Amino acid sequence: MSSHVPNQARVIPLRPAAAAPTPAAKEPLWRHVVGDVLRRERLAQERTLKDVADAARISMPYLSELERGRKEASSEVLAAAARALGLGLADVLALAHGELARPARARPARTGTEPTSVTSVVSGRDRSSGRAAAAPHGGMCLAA
Q1: Whole-structure pTM value
Q2: What domain range is 37 assigned to?
Q3: Please, are residues 77 and 37 in contact by the beta-carbon 8 Å criterion?
Q4: Structural domain tally of the chain?
């Protein structure tokens, strides 16, 4: 006389299920932003990793790791790399700020391909023509 009905209780939720949160725009890591800035400046100057690493007095593999965003540089190392590129630490920070200030959807994805180079903050000159770079509102051009 037994019925083979499963012994399961029905669950009644007390609160309605919350909607899945929408994924927020992922903030870039500082080391990725700074690495991108260093690499773009080095490539814009048509310099090798070895050349810049020697000028900064850091190892070539370490500079490569910095550029790829795999290592977090100390302020001393970052300043040395900036000086080796003819920039000040403030210039690197200004370029990184420009990257962070752009809307997330306009940032290039980190695919291993490099975006176009930026105009040098130090010289304020367009590298392709050698002429002074035009900047909107009479300010210095920080990013292309």
Answers
A1: 0.59
A2: 30-102
A3: no
A4: 1
